[in-house]
Amino acid sequence: MSALLNGNVVLASAANLVPQSVAMGAYAARYAGVTTRRIATAISLFSLLVTASRLAALFMTPSLGALADGAANSALRHHLTAVPPQALAIYDLQMRIIVAAGSVGIVIGAVMVPMFLAGFIRGIASFERRGSVPHALARVLDPKVAFWLLRHLRPPKFSLADFPISAVPRKLLIFNTLLYAVYAVGVVAAFYASVIDLGSRTTATGLSGLVNGIGTIAFALFIDPTTALIVDQTVRDERQPRDVAAMIFWLIVTAFIGTLLAQLILVPAAHYIAIVAHYWPHGKL
After folding, report:
1. pTM as predicted
2. Considering only CA atoms, which of 104, 96, 98, 255 is closest in space to residue 180?
3. 143 is in which domain, residue-wise?
4. Is there a domain that residue 160 lies in?
C-alpha cells in the first residue's frame, strides 16, 4: 500500500482535486451575473477563478514527474529497456487515483455551488464599491464574511425537473464532456507515456502542454461563447433564469462524465503520445 499511495500520489491528487472543485464553483458566476445584472463583472470573476484553477493544477506536474522518474529510474538501474509489468501496474493505479481525484473534486465543487453563488453576488457588490478585485477578494479573509459564506455550504436540494436538459444545446454538452476528458487525461497521459517509452520520456512529458493547449483552444471556441450567449439571452429576457441554472447543472454533470471517460482513454492516450514522442526527435513525423 505504501508503494501505491506515497506522498507524491497524495500531493498530485490534492493538486487535481482542489482546482476541479474551484472550476465547478466558478460556474456560479454566470448565475450571479444574471441575478445582479452585472454580466461583464461576473464573467471577469469567472475567468479569474478558472484561470487560477488551471494555474493551480500545474502544481500537480512535479509530483507526476517524481512518480514517472521513480518508475523509469528503477528500470534503468537494472539495465532494462522498459518498466517491468508489476511496476507498470502500480504506476497505472497511481495515475488512475490521480485522475479519480479530479472526479471527486467535481462532486465537491457541485456541493459548494450555493456557497460560490453567494460569494459571487457579494463579491460583485464589493467590487462595485471598491473598484478593485484584490480588495474585494481580500474581504473573504474577514472572519465575519468567511462565516457568512460557510453558512451557505450545504448540499443543494433539487429535482431534475428544475434543470431541463432541453434548455441546453446538445453540442455544448458533448463538447464539454470531451473537453474535460482531454483536460483530465492530458498531463497524466503525457507522463504515463514517458514510462512506456523510456528512450523518449523527456519529449513525452513536453507534449503535455500541447495536449492541454488544444483543450484550451477548444474551450475558447466551443464552450465559453455558447455559455456567454445563453447568459446574454437570459439578461435580455429571451430565456428564463432557470435556463442558466440548467446550463450550470449539466455542465457540471458532463464534466464529471468527462473525467470518468478519461479513465477509459488514459492508456490509449498514453500510447498515442508515446508514439508521437518516439518519432518526433528522429524526424520521422
Report:
1. 0.87
2. 255
3. 7-155+166-279
4. no
